[in-house]
């Protein structure tokens, strides 16, 4: 017997014999008839089991089958306006494969209970939809990057140096020395462009961030790209095309899932290049004219990013941050040396930062003097400094938080719902 998916059988003509397998999502019975809704990875389909329509033992099995039991059903498809998708499967055979104990998740559960039972909650339709959206976003990204001459590479996760500052490093024992979990593949991608020109990677990144906010995970998926011979202007063009490719691919592959998750998908259609651009100094001026206090030199936090993007419908680049806000590897902007040639990309609707990127400093002396001023030990970075000693080139790159993008595209309130098994300050189980 060949099995079809729930989605496939809904497309089958009336009267067609089909076989499906999946899990019981909902069920109710009244006397001689059982209505069960079956779920598999593709969707849901209603199954009706009538006493007399199949052997009695199988009718009994259907009547007593509990929620989340796995089952195999064979029968014929029939039109039924009341059923989801307008069709139902009338069972001619029903078999329980793996019975389920009383499922611990019912309607209206606390967030904590759902997080404790995440290994079971990921079966929910919302979680299923988010994971499909994420896969479509990543597929859109990879397709665009490959077409644009970027080669996917596999940087290490175990490292001996910080990329984004020592305060958010997870330290671990590496035999008889210390090592860290990677915060960013950037420095390795910088090395790899000397071999491949344009590279990208999709890896987990780790941040020992004590911030309990709806946009921070301690482990997240990081899509990073780096290109030789690219200034920050080119860098931003790559980012806006990449984000467009991700969003538009989600719209073309996963519209149904988006509709299940959010009310309004129309604004996503407008996400097309060029995105808006504004300098950090212009952002500060804007805050001041709106009556907020903001001194030049302070980094933009979540409230400032929210204020900047609340009314926007397309993403916004904020460029030229003061040097004191950002990491030592960024290139000083020759037109405004108080700032770096860098940009953060903020998602509209108050969602805030989804990408951080910059042109990289190529001047060995500037790099070394900044590191000294910040008290960074040179030893672990000798290999990185070598990249400026052997045929250095102008280059730029960026890192995109995959869950940040998914949170924005799906309109999620909390980033933990953009990842199946979230890791946060208070959670590493299950
Ligand atoms: O802005 P960040 O720290 O930049 C870097 O790591 C650069 N080295 C990247 C590069 O140039 N290759 O991080 C990049 C992005 C942020 O814009 C955000 O989207 C995401 O990573 N991100 C997080 N996502 C979830 N949880 C966290 N704690 C995150 N920290 C950063
Ligand atoms: Mg950042």
Q: How would you classify the helix and strand content by structural class?
A: alpha+beta
Strand order of the largest sheet: 6-10-11-16-15-14-13-12
Tell me the series of helices and strands, N- to C-terminal. HEEEHEEHHHEEEEHEEHHHEHHEEEHHEH
Rounded to an integer, what's the Rg over CA atoms?
Answer: 26 Å
Number of domains: 2
Shape assignment = elongated
Ions and ligands = 4-amino-1,4-dioxobutan-2-aminium adenosine-5'-monophosphate, magnesium ion
Please tell me the CATH architecture of the largest domain by its name.
Answer: 2-Layer Sandwich
Folded structure, characterized:
It is elongated and about 85 Å long. Helix 5 packs across helix 7, helix 5 packs across helix 8 and helix 5 packs across helix 14. Strand 4 and strand 5 form a beta hairpin. The protein is of the alpha+beta class and 430 residues long. It contains 14 helices and 16 strands. Strands 6-10-11-16-15-14-13-12 form an 8-stranded mixed beta sheet, with helices on both faces. The chain has a 5-stranded mixed barrel with strand order 1-2-3-5-4. The chain has 2 domains: 93 residues, Beta Barrel (OB fold (Dihydrolipoamide Acetyltransferase, E2P)); 303 residues, BirA Bifunctional Protein, domain 2, CATH 3.30.930. It binds 4-amino-1,4-dioxobutan-2-aminium adenosine-5'-monophosphate and magnesium ion. Magnesium ion binds next to strand 15.
Keywords summarizing the entry:
430 residues; OB fold (Dihydrolipoamide Acetyltransferase, E2P); 5-stranded mixed β-barrel; alpha+beta; binds magnesium ion; BirA Bifunctional Protein, domain 2; 16 strands; elongated; binds 4-amino-1,4-dioxobutan-2-aminium adenosine-5'-monophosphate; 8-stranded mixed β-sheet; single chain; 14 helices
């Amino acid at each position: 017997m060949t099995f079809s998916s729930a989605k496939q059988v809904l497309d089958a003509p009336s009267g067609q014999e089909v076989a499906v397998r999946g899990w019981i999502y909902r069920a109710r019975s009244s006397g001689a008839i059982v209505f069960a809704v079956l779920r598999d990875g593709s969707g849901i389909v209603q199954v009706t089991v009538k006493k007399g329509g199949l052997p009695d033992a199988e009718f009994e099995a259907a009547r007593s089958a509990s929620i989340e039991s796995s089952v195999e059903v064979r029968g014929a498809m029939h039109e039924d306006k009341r059923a989801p998708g307008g069709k139902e499967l009338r069972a001619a055979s029903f078999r329980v494969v793996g019975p389920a104990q009383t499922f611990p998740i019912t309607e209206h559960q606390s967030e904590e209970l759902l997080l404790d039972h995440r290994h079971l909650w990921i079966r929910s339709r919302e979680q299923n939809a988010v994971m499909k959206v994420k896969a479509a976003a990543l597929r859109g990204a990879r397709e665009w990057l490959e077409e644009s001459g970027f080669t996917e590479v596999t940087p290490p996760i175990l490292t001996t140096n910080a990329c984004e500052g020592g305060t958010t490093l997870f330290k671990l024992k590496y035999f008889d020395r210390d090592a860290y979990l990677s915060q960013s593949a950037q420095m390795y991608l910088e090395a790899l462009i000397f071999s491949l020109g344009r590279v990208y990677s999709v890896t987990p990144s780790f941040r020992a961030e004590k911030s309990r906010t709806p946009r921070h995970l301690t482990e997240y998926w990081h899509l990073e790209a780096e290109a030789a011979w690219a200034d920050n202007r080119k860098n931003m063009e790559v980012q806006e095309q990449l984000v467009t490719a991700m969003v538009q691919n989600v719209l073309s592959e996963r519209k149904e899932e988006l509709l299940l998750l959010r009310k309004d998908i129309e604004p996503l259609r407008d996400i097309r290049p060029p995105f808006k651009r504004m300098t950090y100094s212009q952002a500060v001026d804007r805050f001041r004219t709106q009556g907020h206090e903001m001194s030049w030199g302070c980094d933009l936090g979540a409230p400032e990013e929210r204020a900047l993007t609340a009314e926007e419908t397309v993403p916004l680049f904020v460029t030229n941050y003061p040097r004191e806000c950002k990491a030592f590897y960024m290139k000083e902007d020759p037109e405004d040396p108080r700032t770096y040639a860098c940009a953060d990309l903020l998602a509209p609707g108050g969602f805030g930062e989804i990408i951080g990127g910059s042109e990289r400093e190529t001047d060995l002396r500037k790099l070394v003097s900044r590191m000294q001023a910040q008290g960074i030990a040179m030893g672990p970075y000798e290999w990185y400094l070598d990249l400026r000693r052997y045929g250095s080139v102008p280059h730029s790159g960026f890192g995109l938080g995959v869950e940040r993008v998914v949170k924005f595209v799906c309109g999620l309130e909390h980033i933990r719902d953009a990842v199946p098994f979230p890791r946060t300050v208070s959670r590493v189980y299950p």
